[in-house]
Amino acid sequence: MTAPALTAIGIDFGGTSVKFAIVRGPAIVDRGTSLETQGFASSDAILEAMAQEIARLRERHPEVAAIGVGLPGMVDAEGGIVHELSNVPGWCDVALRSVLAAKTGLPVAIENDAKAMTYAEWRFGAAQDYPNVICVTLGTGVGGGLILGGRLYRGSANGAGEIGQTSIDHRGVPAVYGNLGAVEKYVGNREIAELARQRYREAGVEPDAQACTPKALSQAADGGDPVAAALWTEVGTLLGAALTNVVWLLNPDCIVLGGGVAKAGERLFKPIRDTIAARTMESYHQRLAIVPAALGSDAGVIGAAALGAEAAEASLQESKNR
Amino acid sequence: MTAPALTAIGIDFGGTSVKFAIVRGPAIVDRGTSLETQGFASSDAILEAMAQEIARLRERHPEVAAIGVGLPGMVDAEGGIVHELSNVPGWCDVALRSVLAAKTGLPVAIENDAKAMTYAEWRFGAAQDYPNVICVTLGTGVGGGLILGGRLYRGSANGAGEIGQTSIDHRGVPAVYGNLGAVEKYVGNREIAELARQRYREAGVEPDAQACTPKALSQAADGGDPVAAALWTEVGTLLGAALTNVVWLLNPDCIVLGGGVAKAGERLFKPIRDTIAARTMESYHQRLAIVPAALGSDAGVIGAAALGAEAAEASLQESKNR
Tens digits of per-residue pLDDT, B194-239? Predict the structure, then answer.
């Protein structure tokens, strides 16, 4: 698969900010000015501000030929509709693709943000050339995306890849969408902090609030803190249990872990690998790559831009063939 | 997708018997004489007996143009190799496809038996026209297969679809291949019997051995036995927990349940549906079909024959295009 030849604007629409980049293949050529997501009264208002930023970027980069947008929520990529956004009110069945195409005159692709990141890591990042990939983003929530048979797999209602909502304990605590024992309720940022507080207290230490962020816990483990080191083994084992289920079900050749928690590095990756190795047959794990994401916080704009550029190229090709 | 035009011999190679059928599309035209799997000293010996039965069938049906074989174990469908068989000793890296092709002069396809059954249910049975399907076989073990994006999905080492080995409790009891809390250890035939004995005793009843088979437990529930009725709800809820994880991960549009345990019918299907509905978002379950397998014990030979016929047709087409 060759990289798209077209230059596209990649937009990473997050709960906090909307980021813009001019992207060619895997390369960020330029960046736009971010918008504050919560600073707008309606989806119409933020869409108008996005169109203005796009217009400014195109003055600097007239070669821009497509737009791709990744958004956190239920996105119908094929239909071009945003059904709803997590943590952003006022988005209900917005025809984002056609609205943005009408405002800009450019072809537009839209996608769920975790799927856009997965796509970027597969096309240009840590999972290149693997046909079957699960990409997991670890943060406040746990999201994910799937590449299966060399294609982005969306599922029947664009909902595939939600590993954070899969359960590791059928009698566990309820998660936000109703599942019991969803792994997100064990390894989300808040849950890791809560577990750390508990483990420090069990060790007779009263931790301050700053000591229990993923970053501080990584630094503490680096500095030889045995509670923090044991905590990462515990978190990795829990995450490994959830990934073991994915491995039995999908027999992938690559698992990519991204997001803030993944920065804990080998102290998180080792118990994940050990858990999967202990709980699956050899043919499932012997050639399984378990790797950190390579594109960092740019994966969102790179993946969105690639999807935009590829959709534009496919539609050009189609009109040529007619 | 049209049904294959070629007539093929479908072979369902089980741990107990090897069954033969002459198959055209979804129709069983004739049946061969079964072999006893354990009655042969080596894989060579049973392969020779299979070739003889194939020759006999071809005398009656000279139109046979392909062979398909489904087997219980690690089958490399693309490479034509059987890596190992569950419950059948002496099968280690057998080049079944080329051996059988040399013995018969016919094109041969081989496949894992659960995947062959899945393929049959998708092409001709309960999951027709659904692009994303999980098919689960409930028996002593719990197996499965996946159709994703309108194709049989095998995974990177032909291991995909093993829902029986996925866990519903990360601290649960160990299963045969190392996972803890694998759902097979809760809803396999033996485990259902054990759970039934336990529930009867809790109710102050000492059950006889015959009372705890899936069939007897279904009849007891039909007859108004409250212990048996509650047991099916419990089993369905456990199976529903495992399927909920599949739904979050793959967002399928159809789940097919086959095998002996699935004959418990609505008393098993209702708690499965209720569990998935309670533990997923509406968009994941509102259009999700959860249905019994339609082809029964013929799914194996029908699926194997279809895979054989289609492989033969594809290779005919390829040589025409050259």
Answer: 999 999 999 999 988 788 999 999 999 999 999 999 999 999 999 9
- Chain B 189-228, CB below 8 Å of chain A: which residues? none
Using 50, 70 and 90 to split pLDDT, how confident is the model at B1? low
**What is the extent of the structural domain holding A305?**
7-118+297-321
Under 8 Å between Cβ of B268 and B261: yes
One-letter amino acid at B177 equals Y
Q: Do B245 and A245 touch (CB under 8 A)?
A: yes
Q: Residue A242 domain-assigned?
A: yes
User: CATH code at B179?
Assistant: 3.30.420.40
- Residues A319 and A313: their CA atoms lie apart, in Å, by 10
Could you tell me if residue A2 is inside a domain? no
Establish if A151 touches chain B: CB-CB under 8 angstroms. Answer: yes
DSSP secondary structure letter of residue A206? -
Does the beta-carbon distance from B251 to A159 stay under 8 Å?
A: yes
Nearest C-alpha of chain B: how many angstroms from A132?
Answer: 7
Q: How far apart (Å, rounded) are the C-alpha atoms in residues B285 and A156?
A: 10
Mutate to test the interface with B, among A279, A280, A285 (most CBs of B within 10 A): A279
Q: Does the residue A206 lie in any domain?
A: yes
The ipTM assigned to this model is 0.95
Q: Do residues B142 and B83 both lie within one domain?
A: no
Measured N-to-C along each axis, helices A226-250 and A214-222 cross at an angle, to the nearest 10 degrees, of 120
